[in-house]
Amino acid sequence: MSLPSTTQVLIVGGGPAGSSTAHFLSSAGIDVTLVDRATFPRSKPCAEYLSPEASRLLEAMGALHLVEEAGAAQLTGMVVRAPNGFEIEGAFVAEHGFRGFRDRGLALRREVLDELLLNRARAAGTAVHEAVRVESITRLDRGYDVRVRTNETLHTIRTSLLIGADGLRSVVARELGLARRRAWPRRLALVAHWSGVRDIGARGEMHVQHDGYVGLADVGHGLTNVALVVPASQARDMNGNPEAFVQRWIAQYPHLASRFEGATRITPVRATGPFGSRARRAYAPDAALVGDAADFFDPFTGEGIYSALRGGELLAPFAAQAVRASSARESLHALRAYERERARAFTGKWRVEQLIGLAVSFPRLMNHAARVLSRRTELADLLIGVTGDFVPAREVLRPGVLWRMLVPPVRT
Fold first, then answer.
1. In Å, what is the CA distance from 196 to each residue of 146, 199, 266?
2. Are 18 and 127 in contact (CB under 8 A)?
3. Helix (H) or strand (E) holding 156
4. C-alpha dist (Å) from residue 217 to 189, 199, 351, 391
5. What would the pLDDT profile of 350-375 be if each residue is shown by its tens digit?
C-alpha cells in the first residue's frame, strides 16, 4: 500500500498511544494514516505492565481477549521492597472497596502487544505504514506538510491534523517547539527477558536500593521481565556492556542474586531513557501530542502503557472536532479543550508519581515509608490501587491519609 499524499489525520508512532488514538479516531469515521519508523513486530524496552484499568481500554479496542489468548501473565498486586528489607504489599482486590475493570493486571511482551494493538487500528480503518521515518515538518496556513522517507524515497504527506505519538524523544514535539526535559529525575532503564528466575509469582515486584531499583514481573510463557532503572550518570560505568552491568548490579544484592542462580537471559539488554520529559503543552495549532511524547516522569509506577491507551481515548474526540472545525480558531479551541481534559484525567496521578519518585530518590524516606506501610496494609492496598489506575488519586492525597503513611501505628 503506497503512502497517501493527503490525509485528515497523520499519526507518527505505532506504539500503544498511536494505536489507541488511531483506533478511536478511525472508529469515528476520520481518515487516519499512521506511520512508524519500525517494522512490527519489534522489541521495545519496557516494564510491559498493564494495570487492571488498562483492560477497559483493551476491551474498548476489541483487544482484551486477544491479549489474554496471547498468553499474558495475570498479576494480583504489587510488592515493593525498600533498601532496609521492609516490604509494601498491595493487592488489587482489597477491603477499600474500589474495583478495577478487571481484578488483575496483565503483562505481555511489547513485541506481541504492540502488533495486536496496531492490528486493531488497522481493523478500524487506519492506514498503517511501517518503516517510514519523518524527515521534516512544515507548517501551512491550515495543517502541515510532513516529509517522510521510506527506504531511499522521499514523500510528502499533507495533513489537516498532526499527532505525535512517537515517544520520549518525539520528533513531532521537537519540530513543533514543544519538547522540554525535566531536570529531575534523570534515570535510564536496562531491560531484558530471563527464564528460570526463582519465585516469580502473581505479583509484580519492585526492589529499591540506594543506587537504583529493579522490577521483576512474569510476562507469560515462562519469561520474567527484568527492568533495572539507575541514575543516568551511571551510563559511563557500563563501558558499552549493559549485560555485564546488569549482572553486576543484581549480584551485589544477595536477596536478588540467589533468585538468578541458574537463570538464563534470553534477550539482549536494551536501554531506554533518560526519562523525565514533559512537553510545554500537549497541543499546537493543528497538532497534538499523546503518550510519552506529551509526558513521562519515571517508570516506577508502570504507568506508561495505561497512560498511552487512555491518552488516545481522551484525544480522539477532540482531534475529530479539530479536523471537522470550520475555522482555525474553532480547531484550536478543540485542542485546548483536550489539554484541559488531559490535566483533569492525569494531574492527581502525576502528583502521586512525584511523591513516589521522591521516596525512591531518598533511601531514608523510602525505608521509613516501607516500615510504616508494612504495618498499615490497608494504606498499602490503597496506594497500589492508585498505581493500578482504579482508585482515584485523591484517596491517597488527602492530608490525613498522607500523614498516616508517614506515622507508624501505635502498638497496643
1. 47, 9, 10
2. no
3. strand 153-164
4. 15, 11, 25, 22
5. 999 999 988 998 999 999 999 999 99
How far from chain centre, in Å, is Cα 392?
18
Residue 189, C-alpha cell as written in the block: 532503564
Q: Are 324 and 8 contacting, i.e. CB atoms less than 8 angstroms apart?
A: no
pTM exceeds 0.90: yes
Domains in the chain with CATH codes: 6-56+110-182+278-352 (3.50.50.60)
The string of DSSP letters for 284-351 reads: ETTEEE-GGGTEE--GGG--HHHHHHHHHHHHHHHHHHHHH-SSHHHHHHHHHHHHHHHHHHHHHHHH
Distance CA 168, CA 124 (A): 26
Q: Are 293 and 276 in contact (CB under 8 A)?
A: no
- 7 pairs with which residues across the strands? 159
Evaluate the omega torsion of the peptide bond into residue 268 and state whether it is cis, within 30 degrees of 0: no
Name beta bridge partners: 258: none
Q: Are 15 and 114 in contact (CB under 8 A)?
A: yes
Dihedral, CA of residue 33, residue 36, residue 37 and residue 42, to nearest 10: -140
d(C-alpha 53, C-alpha 372), whole Å = 27
Whole-number Cα distances in Å, 70 to 18, 246, 266: 21, 28, 19
Return d(Cα 276, Cα 229) in angstroms, integer: 13
304-349: per-residue pLDDT in tens? 899 999 999 999 999 999 999 999 999 999 999 999 999 999 999 9
The amino acid at 345:
A
Strands 77-81 and 203-209: parallel
Specify whether the CB–CB gap between 303 and 349 falls below 8 A: yes
Bridge partner residues of 106 (DSSP): 50, 74
Three-class secondary structure of residue 147 per DSSP: strand
Q: CA end-to-end span of the chain, whole Å?
A: 72
